[in-house]
Structures are given as structure tokens and as C-alpha cells.
Write a structure and sequence with these properties.
Layout: E1 8-12, H1 17-20, H2 34-46, E2 52-57, H3 61-74, E3 77-80, H4 97-103, H5 105-113, H6 126-142, E4 148-153, H7 157-164, E5 183-184
Parallel strand pairs: 1-4, 2-3, 2-4
Antiparallel strand pairs: 1-5
Length: 223
């Protein structure tokens, strides 16, 4: 039986230090921070009874760490999928989005409102990202699978995939940007917040670690 769209669960990788700082992480290969490890365990608990047996994940360190936590909890296998690699932000890597807003307001506005028209300097255009992620989804839907599968990647890859599954428009993927560690399936209308993160109005806004209720999920557990 081929994979059904409704059996695909999209999961955004949990937080890294760069995420908490509001920086473009892209293809910088950084590990989960303590908050991210805790978010991973929380997401594992939320989806424990979904019957997920396969996790297709991005090749980055954060996805590897979160994939191990999820896989151990669910008894699921991990499969590395190169096409789920995050966007190559080129010279924007490590830069804060707020810096882009202040120094290049026109570029910032285009990036937020029409990202499909922008290519970060020395980076990867959005249309190329859409193509490789679309090819992955097409192949996934042809695979034989009797249950649910998880797709684990960073934002905005998960937002682009969500749009391709009919959960928004590519041009609006900042508007459907999901919290760290959040998940969505075509049976739902929006990403499910894992409650260890609260999105602010500003893109990439983060609550301070002191504000998060993390007592249930010790940072060193499973890291």
C-alpha cells in the first residue's frame, strides 16, 4: 500500500542555540541546545501513540539528535534524506533576521512577503528548495507503507512541505512558520505547539529559557 498523505507527520527540529538567538541557521551543522533536547522528549511524548515506524530526517546534527530521541521512544527507524537539508543561506548564515530588517529593509520585506523571489547572497533560491522537497514528497507517496511516517526537518523546510501538502501557500510560508519541535499532519489545520515554546509576533522571536516550563524534561536526558 502506498503512503497516504494523511499518514505523513511533519516535525520541525527542536531548538538550537542559533534558533533561540533568532539567527539564520540554514546548513550550519549545530547540535540541539538543552531546550531543544527537552522539546524533543516532549514531542516524543505527544506523538507516542501515533504508530510512527519510520522517520525520514534531514542530514543535520540537530535532526540526528532529535531523531534518536523520537526513534527510541517510538521504536522507529531513521532514514537520512539529503533533500531535506535546510536552505543554504550563503552569506546570511549566522546572521540575525532583525539585522537584515534594519540594514536591508527592502530585501527583508521581499523575503517575508515573497520569499520565492529571493536568493540569499551565495545561497540557494527558494524555488530550488521547493523543487527538491517536492521530489522527495513525490517519492515518499510512491513508497509502500501501512502506517504513519514522520518527516523531520528544520524550518522553513517543514513549512514548504506543509504548503505542498495543501496546508498553505509557498508564498506564505513565513506565516505558517511553526515553533521549534512542533508537528502537523494533514488531518490538522495548524502546527501543534509542543508548549515548550511560545511564538512572538516578531519572526524567530523566542521566550527566554527562564520562562519555559522545563522541569518535566531534564536537559541531559537522552542527549
Amino acid at each position: 500500500m502506498q503512503t497516504k498523505i494523511e499518514n505523513i507527520v511533519l516535525i520541525r527540529t527542536a531548538a538550537t542555540d542559533l534558533d533561540l538567538q533568532g539567527r539564520f541557521c540554514g546548513q550550519l551543522d549545530v547540535p540541539l541546545c538543552d531546550v531543544g533536547v527537552q522539546q524533543s522528549h516532549f514531542t516524543a511524548d505527544q506523538l507516542h501513540d501515533f504508530g510512527i515506524k519510520i522517520i525520514y530526517r534531514a542530514p543535520c546534527m540537530a535532526a540526528s539528535q532529535m531523531g534518536k530521541i523520537l526513534g527510541k521512544s517510538w521504536g522507529a527507524k531513521q532514514k537520512i534524506e539529503p533533500s531535506l537539508q535546510n536552505i543554504d543561506y550563503g552569506l546570511w548564515h549566522g546572521r540575525k533576521l532583525t539585522d537584515l530588517k534594519e540594514t536591508q529593509p527592502r530585501v527583508y520585506r521581499s523575503w517575508m512577503e515573497h520569499p520565492e523571489t529571493i536568493c540569499p547572497p551565495n545561497g540557494e533560491p527558494i524555488h530550488a528548495v521547493c523543487q527538491r522537497t517536492g521530489e522527495f514528497l513525490a517519492k515518499l507517496l510512491q513508497k509502500s507503507c501501512n502506517g504513519r511516517v514522520a518527516v523531520l526537518a528544520s524550518a522553513p523546510i517543514t513549512s514548504i512541505l506543509a504548503a505542498k501538502l495543501g496546508l498553505g501557500e509557498i508564498e506564505e510560508f513565513w506565516e505558517v512558520q511553526e515553533p521549534d519541535g512542533a508537528w502537523i499532519t494533514p488531518g490538522k489545520t495548524e502546527f501543534v505547539n509542543n508548549q515548550l515554546f511560545s511564538k512572538t509576533q516578531e519572526q524567530h522571536g523566542r521566550r527566554s529559557i527562564e520562562e519555559l516550563d522545563l522541569a518535566k524534561y531534564p536537559a541531559n536526558h537522552g542527549k
